[in-house]
């Protein structure tokens, strides 16, 4: 009977250790290597984002939630841009480039905007199909959070502040 209790206790300890390891490493998968084609024709890679906390937002001009959240994304960028924060808005492949350019210019989006005209970037980032889908990437190039739909911006700001404070 005593041996059975020790086996159960040992199994519970192993489960707790594995659970802790899973929680500690949750959300820290490496951001996929991608090349983003920006509206000005220049290119930026995932590697170029290292050293900054980055918000990568997959969106479309036809997505009402995307359009509604854009002012909050602009405000977030403006709040943290001088602290090592970057924002990259990636328009989906089905979004007509002329619509993306018009939206970007009329709303005066202050951050980088890319067009994923082949869908390769969305496929690389975990097969993104729903918009908006937003990723937060830490300074080491690891995805720490994924939002499908509009994020809770108060929570998002707390996360960004925590990540900016990391070495």
Would you give an account of this structure?
- With 167 residues, the protein is an alpha/beta fold.
- It folds into two domains: 28 residues; 135 residues, Glutaredoxin (3-Layer(aba) Sandwich).
- The protein has five helices and eight strands, in the order αββββαβαβαββα.
- The strands form two sheets. A six-stranded mixed beta sheet has the order 1-8-7-4-5-6.
- The longest helix has 24 residues.
- The radius of gyration is 19 Å and the shape is globular.
- The termini are far apart.
- About 14% of the residues have low confidence.
Give a quick set of tags describing it.
about 170 residues, alpha/beta, Glutaredoxin, 2 domains, two-stranded antiparallel ribbon, 5 helices, about 25% strand
What is the number of independent domains?
2
Shape designation: globular
Structural class: alpha/beta
Low-pLDDT parts are: 4-26
Order of helices and strands: HEEEEHEHEHEEH
Name given to the CATH homologous superfamily of the largest domain? Glutaredoxin
Radius of gyration: 19 Å
The proportion of residues forming helix, as a percent range, comes to 40-55%
Mean pLDDT rating: 88
User: Number of DSSP strands?
Assistant: 8
Task: Write a brief caption for the model.
With 167 residues, the protein is α/β, with parallel strands linked by helices.
Task: Describe the secondary-structure layout.
Elements (H helix, E strand, L loop, with lengths): L1 H24 L3 E2 L4 E3 L5 E3 L7 E7 L4 H17 L4 E7 L5 H10 L5 E4 L4 H5 L8 E5 L4 E7 L4 H13 L2
Parallel strand pairs: 4-5, 5-6
Antiparallel strand pairs: 1-8, 2-3, 4-7, 7-8
């Amino acid at each position: 009977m005593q041996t059975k209790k020790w086996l159960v206790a040992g199994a519970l300890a192993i489960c707790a250790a594995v659970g802790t390891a899973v929680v500690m490493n949750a959300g820290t998968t490496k951001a996929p290597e991608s090349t983003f084609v920006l509206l000005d024709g220049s290119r930026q890679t995932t590697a170029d984002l290292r050293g900054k906390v980055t918000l990568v937002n997959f969106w479309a001009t036809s997505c009402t939630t995307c359009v509604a959240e854009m002012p909050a994304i602009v405000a977030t960028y403006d709040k943290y841009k001088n602290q090592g924060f970057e924002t990259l808005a990636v328009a989906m492949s089905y979004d007509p480039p002329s619509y993306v350019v018009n939206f970007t210019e009329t709303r005066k989006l202050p951050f980088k905007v890319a067009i994923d005209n082949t869908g390769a970037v969305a496929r690389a980032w975990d097969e993104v199909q729903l918009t908006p889908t937003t990723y937060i990437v830490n300074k080491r190039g690891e995805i720490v959070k994924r939002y499908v739909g509009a994020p809770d911006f108060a929570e998002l700001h707390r996360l960004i502040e925590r990540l900016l404070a990391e070495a």
